[in-house]
């Protein structure tokens, strides 16, 4: 039964005017050219996409967030879901109550939609294929859904297209599983071919004696199983990819996903991996999505191994948990991008508009009311943290480990958003609740430099900039210097102020090891009145820039750091402007 059976007269008029563009089965004529995937403008209503109905199979949280994005784009989204109070029901343009596994229901639903898409891949793909033959516009294509539904077929497909994967093989009986164990070794990952997500459908056998129990845990060989060689990854990565009707590809920044009990727990954007790894991950994601058919957003999940390999794990043909952060952190959210793609609109800008973001999945911690109480407590703490956005999925039933919502924190550095997440997850009154990671590192070669370098710390304190002070010598403790420079960015440091006297190698050496900006402070030594320090720091070779201030002028180093941070921090920039005005007034 439809939710909006008693629509207003204006709504009825709008639907009636739209019928002139409908065939008996679909709301938009299909092109007779199978290679032409664009929505022809003469087939669109005269008022554009605002009169086109996008049909979504599924009304869960992904459907809900698609509806939210659509409402800001004047696009109507209709969902098909068996639950009367599914998450998308309250905000969808229309909600048809029914199963997306039932062929007759899906066909009836398709009659009311210009474009048919999915928020979950576990749909009746045979019906989608039938609809496509009748001319219904399905995005992505049913052929893609069929490949993705079967994880073994996924592996075969991507292997044929030269995508790097863990080794895998199909198994039909226990003897086949034992042969796989002999070939790949143990532990061995057994997986269900279909209906597997959020860790469901995976089982690990540590040796051949555990094969039988692993198979039974997955429902037996009749369900369809395959095995993968165990991949000792160091990080799990993901790339959201938008694909347009014109086959254009747009990749979002690589993110790191952190799982607990096989469920996505935290997503960090961007991923803290070398640029080479990011480029490799994006290249693999681009190739994987290019090998499929149809428009929309795809999520490409990847493994990063300890030897620097990036291997494809699996692909989802829809918006994904790893892309929820894009609502706040990117110029175009994954949900807007999906709508743009399926409607043939130009793909939006996927780049991040904030330096860092972290997404935390709000999972049920208990059943029923106690679970709701715990979730609301966490939301209350989240709303007290700057840069935090809460998304509640409005699910009526609370269960343990169920995805009830998510929380995204954006900020000026990875260290800051990680510290805010830790603060949010602590109980109120915790000593660590207000802890903030330093964003400026002040380093020097000797404690004898402290009387000079303390002026930089005083300036940072004046403007409330969190910082750290370390003694790091390029000559006496080179290993410590290497470690500090290489880890600074991952710890959330954004700027390094390095003071050195005499040979003054510290600023330049650190600048050669990190992509962070380095400000050099020449410290006056006993000989040459500090000129040796100054000349050593300013004469860096091309490619190793060090912003150098005057001899002993750590004050300016601190101010320069504050100004650099102020470019991306409106509050800090305002305090700087006030400070500048006061200084000018005093000078005059």
From TrEMBL:
Q: Which reaction does it catalyse?
A: 5-amino-1-(5-phospho-D-ribosyl)imidazole-4-carboxylate + H(+) = 5-amino-1-(5-phospho-beta-D-ribosyl)imidazole + CO2
Q: Which SUPFAM superfamilies match?
A: Glutathione synthetase ATP-binding domain-like, N5-CAIR mutase (phosphoribosylaminoimidazole carboxylase, PurE), PreATP-grasp domain, Rudiment single hybrid motif
What Gene Ontology terms for biological process does this UniProt record contain? Answer: 'de novo' IMP biosynthetic process
Q: Which SMART domains match?
A: AIRC
Recorded hits in Gene3D superfamilies, A to Z, give:
3.40.50.1970, 3.40.50.20, ATP-grasp fold, A domain, ATP-grasp fold, B domain
What the entry lists under InterPro entries is as follows:
Ade2_fungi/plant, ATP-grasp, ATP-grasp_carboxylate-amine, ATP_grasp_subdomain_1, PreATP-grasp_dom_sf, PurE_ClassI, PurE_dom, PurK
The text of the family note is: In the C-terminal section; belongs to the AIR carboxylase family. Class I subfamily.
The GO molecular function terms of this record are: ATP binding; metal ion binding; phosphoribosylaminoimidazole carboxylase activity
- Record carries keyword Lipoprotein: no
- Alphabetical list of Pfam families matching this protein: AIRC, ATP-grasp, PurK_C, RS_preATP-grasp-like
Enzyme Commission number(s) from the entry: 4.1.1.21
Name the chain's protein.
phosphoribosylaminoimidazole carboxylase
Instruction: Note the superkingdom of the native organism.
Output: Eukaryota
* A single Gene Ontology CC term: chloroplast
Q: Which residues form the ATP-grasp domain?
A: 155-343
* UniProt pathway: Purine metabolism; IMP biosynthesis via de novo pathway; 5-amino-1-(5-phospho-D-ribosyl)imidazole-4-carboxylate from 5-amino-1-(5-phospho-D-ribosyl)imidazole (carboxylase route): step 1/1
Keyword annotations from UniProtKB, A to Z: ATP-binding, Chloroplast, Decarboxylase, Lyase, Nucleotide-binding, Plastid, Purine biosynthesis
């Amino acid at each position: 039964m439809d939710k909006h059976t008693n629509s207003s007269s204006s709504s009825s008029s709008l639907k009636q005017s739209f019928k002139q563009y409908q065939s008996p089965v679909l709301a938009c004529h299909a092109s007779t050219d199978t290679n032409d995937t664009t929505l022809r403008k003469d087939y669109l209503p005269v008022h554009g996409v605002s009169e086109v109905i996008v049909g979504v199979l599924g009304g869960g949280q992904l459907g809900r967030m698609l509806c939210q994005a659509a409402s800001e784009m004047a696009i109507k989204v209709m969902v098909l879901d068996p639950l009367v109070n599914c998450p998308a029901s309250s905000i969808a343009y229309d909600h048809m109550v029914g199963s997306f596994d039932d062929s007759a229901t899906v066909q009836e639903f398709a009659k009311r939609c210009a474009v048919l898409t999915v928020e979950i891949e576990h749909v009746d793909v045979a019906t989608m294929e039938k609809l496509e033959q009748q001319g219904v516009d399905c995005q992505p294509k049913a052929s893609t859904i069929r490949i993705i539904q079967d994880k073994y077929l996924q592996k075969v497909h991507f292997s044929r297209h030269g995508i790097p994967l863990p080794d895998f093989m199909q198994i039909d009986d226990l003897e086949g599983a034992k042969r796989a164990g002999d070939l790949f070794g143990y532990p061995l990952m057994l997986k269900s071919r279909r209906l597997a997500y959020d860790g469901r459908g995976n089982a690990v056998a540590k040796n051949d004696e555990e094969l039988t129990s692993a198979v039974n845990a997955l429902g037996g060989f009749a369900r369809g199983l395959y095995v993968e060689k165990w991949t000792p990854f160091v990080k799990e990565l993901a790339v959201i990819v938008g694909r347009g009707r014109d086959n254009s590809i747009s990749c979002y920044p690589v993110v790191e996903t952190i799982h607990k009990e096989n469920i996505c727990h935290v997503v960090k954007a961007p991923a803290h991996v070398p640029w080479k790894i990011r480029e490799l991950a994006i290249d693999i994601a681009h190739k994987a999505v290019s090998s499929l058919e149809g428009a929309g957003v795809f999520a490409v999940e990847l493994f990063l191994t300890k030897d620097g390999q990036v291997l494809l794990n699996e692909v989802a043909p829809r918006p994904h948990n790893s892309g929820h952060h894009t609502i706040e952190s990117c110029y175009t959210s994954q949900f807007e991008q999906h709508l743009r793609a399926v409607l043939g609109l130009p793909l939006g800008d996927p780049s991040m508009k904030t330096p860092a973001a972290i997404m935390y999945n709000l999972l049920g911690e208990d059943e029923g009311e106690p679970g709701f109480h715990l979730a609301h407590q966490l939301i209350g703490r989240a709303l007290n943290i700057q840069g935090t956005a809460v998304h509640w999925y409005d699910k009526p039933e609370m269960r343990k480990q169920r995805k009830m919502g998510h929380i995204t924190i954006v900020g000026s550095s990875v260290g800051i958003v990680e510290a805010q997440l830790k603060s949010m997850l602590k109980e109120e009154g915790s000593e660590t609740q207000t802890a903030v990671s330093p964003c400026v590192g002040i380093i020097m070669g000797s404690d004898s430099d402290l009387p000079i370098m303390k002026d930089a710390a005083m300036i940072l304190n004046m403007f409330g900039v969190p910082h750290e002070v370390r003694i790091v010598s390029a000559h006496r403790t080179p290993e410590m210097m290497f470690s500090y420079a290489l880890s600074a960015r991952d710890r959330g440091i954004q700027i390094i102020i390095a003071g050195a006297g005499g040979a003054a190698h510290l600023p330049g050496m650190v600048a050669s090891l990190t992509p962070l900006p380095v400000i050099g402070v020449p410290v006056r030594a006993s000989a040459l009145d500090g000129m040796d320090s100054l000349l050593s720091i300013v004469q860096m070779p091309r490619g190793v820039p060090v912003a150098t201030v005057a001899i002993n002028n750590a004050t300016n180093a601190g101010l320069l750091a504050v100004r650099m941070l102020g470019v991306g921090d409106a509050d800090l920039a305002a305090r700087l402007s006030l400070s500048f005005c006061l200084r000018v007034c005093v000078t005059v």
